[in-house]
Automatic annotation (TrEMBL):
Domain 4Fe-4S ferredoxin-type residue range list: 4-33, 52-81
Listed PANTHER family: NADH DEHYDROGENASE UBIQUINONE IRON-SULFUR PROTEIN 8, MITOCHONDRIAL, NADH-QUINONE OXIDOREDUCTASE SUBUNIT I 2
Organism: Tessaracoccus defluvii
Protein name (record): 4Fe-4S binding protein
One Gene Ontology cellular component annotation held by this UniProt entry: membrane
Pfam families: Fer4, Fer4_4
Keywords carried by this UniProt record: 4Fe-4S, Cell membrane, Iron, Iron-sulfur, Membrane, Metal-binding, NAD, Quinone, Repeat, Translocase, Ubiquinone
Top-level taxon in the UniProt lineage: Bacteria
């Protein structure tokens, strides 16, 4: 198994924040909001979290995999090679669009 970059599978993320809390370097930041679902007739309304932002600061990441191991929904997975160096630290902060796994097939 290659311990390189980390991919976020957004459809599986429930915004539980376990990855961010368990990260030893606190390199993961995420925000979310709650939305109410329309229940079936006679059922009570329910809410669920919707992911707004998700970032990983690769300048802090130790590539330890604790976030991947602790994710209860398997929304995080190992990607390919390590994230390449960058001329500025801010270039090492990747948001959801850069953390998506590459499209399969095509």
């Amino acid at each position: 198994m290659i311990h390189g970059s980390i991919h976020l599978i957004e459809d599986l993320c429930t915004s539980c924040m376990i990855c961010a809390r368990e990260c030893p370097t606190w390199c993961i930041t995420l925000t979310s909001h709650q939305e109410q679902t329309v229940p079936a007739p006679g059922a009570r309304p329910r809410t669920h979290n919707v992911l707004d932002t998700f970032t990983i600061d690769w300048s802090l990441c130790m590539y330890c995999g604790v976030c991947i191991e602790q994710c209860p929904t398997d929304a995080l997975e190992w990607g390919g090679a390590h994230v390449p160096s960058a001329p500025r630290l801010t270039d090492l902060i990747h948001s959801r669009d850069r953390l998506r796994p590459p499209a399969s097939g095509a």
